[in-house]
Amino acid sequence: MKTKSKIKRPTPEMVELLRRTGSHNKEEAMAAMRALAGALEEPLRQGVLTGDITGDIFAEEVLEPGAVAEYPLDFYQPGDEDNFTAYTLPNEGTIPQKHISGDVVTVQTYDVGNSIDWLLKYSREARWNVVARALEVMEAGFVKKLNRDGWHVIIAAGLGRGFIGYDNAAAAGQFTKRLISVLKTLMRRNAGGNTSSTNRGRLTDLYISPEALEDIREWDNTEVDEVTRREILQQGNEDVVLQQIYGVTLHTLDELGVNQEFQTYYEANGGTMATSDQEIVIGLDLSKNDAFVRPIKEELSIFEDPALHRRRRSGVYGWLEIGHACLDPRRVTIGSF
Question: What is the pTM of this model?
Answer without folding.
Answer: 0.85
